[in-house]
Amino acid sequence: MRTLLTVLLCASVLSAADTARRAPGFALPDSTGKIYDLSDYRGKIVVLEFMQTTCAHCMTFTPILNQLQIRYGGKVAVLAVVNPPDGAPKVAGYISAHQVNYPILMDCGQMAYSYLRVQSFDLPQLYLIDENGMIQREFGYSDSSRDIFEGKGLFTHLDAMLKKK
Length: 165
Known about the structure:
Layout: H1 2-17, E1 21-22, E2 27-29, E3 35-37, E4 45-50, H2 56-72, E5 76-82, H3 88-98, E6 104-106, H4 110-116, E7 125-129, E8 134-140, H5 146-150, H6 153-164
């Protein structure tokens, strides 16, 4: 009986991992001090990226996120988040050099940890949050997710999410 309960408990935990989870809330400043609160985006799809200004993959992904802002307009919001050692001057330089058209927010690591749930991680990391504040998809950069970060794969996922609305 104990073994059966253990198996059922493990199965329920595994199946829960496949379902959407509530996106942890946050209110973070950008490099100018303006505060962005996730709850302000309720009703829109949010593309949340964890990045670093010196990350080559993040630099490749930036034009895709800029295109996304143009393609989807007010239906989809893009927010990027950096952690130390990136600070306001580095972020401002990155925004200027890469013509970023979405906010890059400053985190000390606590908000990133609430999403990633690990002490260290590779960048970029991406979360697709639906209009109800639920994380529907998450991607870390890898060979299998290269089309998300370097191609048109992200648009396919967003188109599917928008059709469900």
